[in-house]
Amino acid sequence: MNEEPVTEASRRHSVFIAYAHADRLVADMVADSLESVGIGVGKAGGGAGGGAWRNAIEQSLKTSDYFLPIVSHASAASGHFAEEVLRADFVRELSDRAIKIIPIVLDRADVPTPLRGILYLDFTGDPDTAMKRLLDVFAPVVDIDFAALSPEAFEDLVADFLVAVGRKAERDVVIDGREYDFVIPPSDTGLFAEPGGGGWIVQVKHRTIERTSAAMIREMVAATAVLRERGYTVALVTSSQLTSAAREIATRAAIHLVEGVELQTLLIDRPDLVRKHFRQQRL
Questions:
Q1: Please, what is the angle between helix 127-143 and helix 24-36, to 10°?
Q2: I need a labelling partner for 12 at 20 to 30 A (CA). Which of 19, 148, 177, 187 fits?
């Protein structure tokens, strides 16, 4: 299990808000409300030039777990917003990077095609109620603060999670002189299913820096090469997100990923685990 030093910025889950210049007051209101409950917020308005706007988005999303585009008549009329935020390939890229998208709709504006099918919040009629709903979405996420856990505590959480999803896992298993965090027998259904496979090697990496690097993934690929040749499927469960380069390497090596945002989503459906492992975080 790997751990990096905890930084102050890494202790907060991060949201990035994109908006047209005319919607700045709404963006500021949403940002202030989220920051009041401990969510880190970055913003970029569409009034900047195309290059600056594009760079702001790319830099902010490198450290963001959630993306909140503000959809309005103004954003629909903004060339920069449409070109950089409303593209289908951009939405797919965020999904591939496990960045959750929550559109905020103003003025009864039409939801752009790439964002349809995604749960959105309508701030048109009653923004106060809509804001409360948004805070409700983040309430359990605020409780799930991986950075507050030690490496051992994070591994204990993963062990309990595997039990909760019905996986009998052997812990701290030594194979050919190397120790692996969990070994799971083959299963045909559910999480970590691999019909006809040779079982799973699950490695746990507790990372409290912004992203898991390509170098760490290369090391993991090399360390599990022989086991993958023997028919094992390898998974990484991490408290952080991977860089794009790291994710590409993992995909090529057929390493299954459960990154921090996905793990948060899975834990939200298991409040007993959240209470057990995070109950002491609140004052």
A1: 40
A2: 19
> Residue 72: which of 14, 31, 121, 117 has the closest Cα?
121
Which one, of 30, 40, 41, 44, lies nearest residue 135 by Cα?
30
Report how far residue 210's alpha carbon sits from residue 8's, in angstroms, rounded to the nearest whole number: 11
User: pLDDT confidence of 280, banded at 50, 70, 90?
Assistant: low
List, for residues 92-124, the tens digit of each pLDDT value.
777 777 788 888 999 888 887 777 778 788 998
Q: Which of 275, 27, 258, 32 shows the shortest CA–CA distance to 140?
A: 275
CA distances from 14 to 9, 28, 203 (A): 9, 15, 25
Q: How far apart are CA 71 and CA 118, in angstroms?
A: 13
